[in-house]
């Protein structure tokens, strides 16, 4: 099981565009959900936060195996996702990588 939480800085002049990106993903929910299967993704959440004077998009994922590189996907939603990423994410800023310390869940027979 691979569980990750990582945040990526958005270019300051691309915040509105990043919000359009999130709207694009919401408006294509079924198509996005279908991309999760080949990515071994059981669950994915995207959060946003203003931190240290920057706007970040943060991905939480729960996967059963390492995913293939989304940049090699031929899926139209993935192609659009990569375009948004290249336009909006400032990769010069180090990402915020969170380390998983504990996992808690109710007992299965509760």
Content-based structural category = alpha+beta
How much helix is in the residues? 25-40%
Q: Which segments are poorly predicted (pLDDT under 50) over 5 or more consecutive residues?
A: none
Strand order of the largest sheet: 2-3-1-4
Query: For the residues shown, what is the average pLDDT?
Result: 95
What's the total count of β strands? Answer: 4
Compute the separation of the termini in Å: 23 Å
Strand content: 25-35%
What is the compact description of this entry?
The chain is 30% helix and 29% strand. With 110 residues, it is α+β, with helices and mostly antiparallel strands.
Describe this structure in words.
The chain has 110 residues and is α+β, with helices and mostly antiparallel strands. Helices cover 30% and strands 29% of the residues. Strands 2-3-1-4 form a four-stranded antiparallel β-sheet, covered by helices on one side. Strand 2 (41-51) and strand 3 (54-63) form a beta hairpin. Helix 1 packs antiparallel against helix 3. The radius of gyration is 15 Å and the shape is globular. The relative contact order is 0.28. The model has no long low-confidence stretch (mean pLDDT 95).
